[in-house]
Amino acid sequence: MRRYPIRSFNRAKRGFFTVSSALCLAACGASEVDENAALQATAASDFAATVKCNTPSSTRVRIDGGTFIMGSNAVYAEESLERETTIDGFWIDPHEVTNGQFAKFVEAAGYQTVAEKPVDPAQFGVPVEQIPSFMLQPGSAVFTPPHNPSRNYSDWWEYLPGANWRKPYGPQGPDARPDQPVVHLAWDDMHAYAEWTGGRIPTEAEWEYAASAGAEKYTEQPDPRLANSWQGVFPIVNEGSDGFKGIAPVGCFEPNANGLYDMVGNVWEVTADYYRAGHDPADQTNPRGPSENAAYDPLNPGFTSRVMKGGSYLCAPNYCQRYRPESRQGRDAGLGASNVGFRLVYDSAE
Ligand SMILES: [Ca+2]
Ligand SMILES: [Ca+2]
Prior knowledge:
Layout: H1 6-14, H2 19-27, H3 30-45, E1 61-63, E2 66-70, E3 83-87, E4 90-92, H4 99-109, E5 139-143, E6 157-161, H5 187-197, H6 204-212, E7 268-274, E8 305-309, E9 328-332, E10 340-341, E11 345-346
Parallel strand pairs: 7-10
Antiparallel strand pairs: 1-4, 2-3, 4-11, 5-6, 7-8, 8-9
The structure holds calcium ion (2 copies).
């Protein structure tokens, strides 16, 4: 898979890295860039969870087939239209894939993730002199809280060289904790892990069916005991009244009626479906979303995104009310982020 195609670079300039910030960083001396990176990593690592929770069982959970109302007409247009949807049964991980689980795969398979590999300048599709030098270093997108109120997400996302699943807050930050969900993975990394375990990445419908667990749809922020979200005014006031200002170890919050932890909140979870805003009302039986050719992400035009579900610890009432089973956004398949993970489903109990 291409790592940073031109469309991704364009998205980066528009989103994570504004033209001005990219040019500034490109113009700065190396030592100044290194200092900035260190400061960013320090600020971001303040968000590392310090509370220890009991790690739940990893035994696959059976989800019997059935019919439910997928989607929502109540919040964001991309989640509509609600429609009756029928799903075949499957098994699913009770918690997000952890760093400990991913480490076993990496060791056994000798695997290196996309964020750890050298960056090929040709993949940007522009002359190399137009690419900021820091973007030619291996790395990933890290949430770094700004000092001032902002509605511009380029103010709290940074491409941080050296950030990857082992060092989720960058090279200056703490190591990944085995009991926390793995982040900073590209689609290829998740797919490789799934093949190694004999599982697969769920469809959006499977994920939403398992997450909703027969409960009534809601729009309000969940009770702090139920999901790791953001209390306070995002992105500057992080009250952490649910116990975690950043990622929590898996299983710290109450499971849903299917016995699944952190389906909503903690980290977003990538699904197999390509992204397109809204659901096809005719696609009602084991839906798999649009074809790759029909996929379209308005936030990344010309870019093929996958659907991610459930929101993350960064979702707050004043920004990203996506702490719900129906929530969905497009996710760049070639670039990881510090609030995006995944879990697997299976077609057998073992
Ligand atoms: Ca929280
Ligand atoms: Ca989650």
